[in-house]
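Hey, can you fold this?
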Amino acid sequence: CGTSQYILPQTVSHGQYCVKPFECCVIVASHHQVAGLTLLAVGVYSARNTTAVAGRYIEARLGKPSLVRETSRITVGEAIKHPIKMAKRLKSKPQDALEGVVLSPSLEERVRDIAIATRNTRQNRGLYRNILMYGPPGTGKTLFAKKLAMHSGMDYAIMTGGDVAPMGRDGVTAMHKVFDWANTSRRGLLLFVDEADAFLRKRATEKISEDLRATLNAFLYRTGEQSNKFMMVLASNQPEQFDWAINDRIDEIVNFALPGLEERERLVRLYFDKYVLEPATGGRQRMKLAQFDYGQKCSEIAKRTEGMSGREISKLGVAWQAAAYSSEDGVLTEAMIDARVDDAVKQHLQKMDWLHGEGGEEAEAKSTAAPLAGGTGSGGKMGFNLPLSEAPQAEAVIAPALGINTKEEGKSIQQEVTPAPSDMKSAIPEKEEVCDDAVKAETQSLDQPAASTPSEDRMENEGKTVPSPQKDGTPV
């Protein structure tokens, strides 16, 4: 190609012909371009696949699955956004499992044993035990699960059962991602499932969709054996709805009941210090507190808040703080505290009425309305009241549908039940026997008067006549 002479005939893709040096250089350059484009395509394809694989690996190791609402594990996004917070978390020491958690003495002793056993299990790389915590809302189940993970040096992840059903067909894949992500934890993971009864229902009796059933089966598959990588903690308000296979995977059952008088007083003092005393005595003096006996007031509030949960008492402390901030001078008085307690007690009673199927308006009507004439009436859970004066009428309407004949004699009602269909044949005599008995009865009635029965005598005393036998011989 460097000479200016014609070259000899050569084979260039299509037959033999002579080409000039310039044409030869063009053909060689075109072959180099094709090879370069091919190598570029291979590089792009390989880079894309490698990036996808690396992304999945990073997501499995550090990324948070879509079903996990909250976690203490360090993710890439949180490490970039909050580097100081992540550094403090890495240097943090194990905390007390019951710090800030107020429980009864017996329950406190039991959960402390669970916390110690979990911590020793992690240190010895043993198999974790699965726990079920049940009880009313706001009794400290979620708080204890977080404290348990921090005490044992584990990471925690919180997911809720209500997020599983809306995922549909993607629920199975999302569930497998959660457990794959849990198995990659070096410190061990405490997987806390709140409102677990939302998707762990009975497959035999409950009506659940096929997608939710498949997700439940995936959950059962991943929890069939105990693991040394993760620990499962379930929380539910209705544990009787669990599938039997879920109950078989539970090793420890803990009941978080409503706080008693002593626990309520500890909770009131705790939140009074947190939301009232600390802001009032702080450096900024954000609020002021009037002079009264704080300890005596907390004891009185504990007696008045019977039946309330720890969450309701904590909201009561927030209400005290809001009352001080809303006042003109920023002073929280004893009267303001009592007013907020009265409102909280009324709201709690209204919630209990809703829980037992009685509406707030019906309860208010019962307490304020005057009794009706003729009776107070009978109330129902559906809000339907039936006066007592209408009870006989209702019985008379319902009786024919039940096969009951009612006769009103004065103020009492006597019911005569008609014979069942199965007994009708035995109650009806044969035709020949009927005729013979009828003839004999008519003959005896001509000779002597018929003997009266006690019921007939009673009817005669009431002024009613006894029906006589028919002339055709048909028995009465």
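Oh, and this one too while you're at it.
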Amino acid sequence: MENLKLNSYYDVIIVGSGPSGLGAAFKIAENSKKSVLLIEKKKISSGGLRNDCKQNYTYPVGFPLEHWEKDEAQKLLVEVANHLKPKMETRLNIDKYVNRAKKLDVDILAIDQAHVGTDKSSALINSLIEQLKNLGVTVALETEVKELHETKKEIRLSNDFKIEFNDIILGPGRADYDWMQAQMDRIGVKYSDNIVDIGIRVEMKEENYPIVKDYYDPKILFPNKVRTFCTNSGCAHIVREKYKGYYSVNGHSLSRDKKPNNLVNFAMLKTIRLTQPVVSGQQFGKILGEMVMQLSGGSVIMQRVGDFRLGQRSKKETFNDDLYDFKPTLSNAIAADLSLSMPAKILRDIWSALKKLDSIVPGVLHPSTILYYPEIKTYSNKPQFLNKNFMVKEGYYIIGDGAGTSRGITAAWASGIKAAKSILEK
């Protein structure tokens, strides 16, 4: 914990310094004299704002339709841009891809996008935090909220210090889903958790996916609820992220200032909506992740498309310098067999989408292309909201990707603005 003396009461407490928390903090600080405490358990905000920092500025990308109308979202996106000051990526010459896609019942969305890069995101986050401090917000980094009181408007920190509040906004993100569920149980908020995205991350040479030269992060929707997600090019890398009990792969790219490695990676995800008897998307994702851990000896797995098509597992020696003329950027992934560890229905739908994509952008399924597994997006607990401003109980708001009010940086920030407006209008 920072060497920071905290008060025993704040008008507003915001838990989590991701984009949803930052959006709420700026809105309140810029429009009131309320005392605000922003709490973050890490040294710096994590998640999408820290990793790659890719931003989408076109509705409905990132905005769950059950919570957002187009006019409201577009208006709030202007506020988001005023703080993040995006430099938009160009989008050119995609008509040929769009026309090919239509013939295959595939949609390519035209999205306004900005990209910061993992190497520059920390500077952006630190700048935003300093701005909040200058606005009078108390920012407590490396400070963990242990729990909410069951009946009083009070939180208890990991050092047992207690702080009371009038309003609280919870935006801890997807990684802390179990903590969020425990707090909702404590304060009597009902919720559901039956949706999860399961998929792979695809890595290839940029020459085999030339669409990225014209469209930085193509948003492509396939039948059977499969989509591309988070495309990285330029200086692009696969990373392994630790979750509770397993690893998930993800993709990063550095800013354009860095020397390119001429590789591309993107996720192919299938959305799974569970019903009885298994109703927890978080637990389903964890089970699949843990199974990969068992089969790989404690890591994630990868397979070349050439081996997959031949129905044989990839081995360390098949990742060679002949036909497979680039090395995997995630060196600690284990060469293995996707079909042994991925549910058949999910694999079938993703492979079908990849074949369609290969018809739209020929080269995707070059034998050297690498398929990494698993990429798991346990997007949200879905609380029962009392109003459109994400209030779950008088004085309690839950927002961001971890609450199902957003999927991505800009919509999460907008969620924070929406909750903050409700507090300001009291």
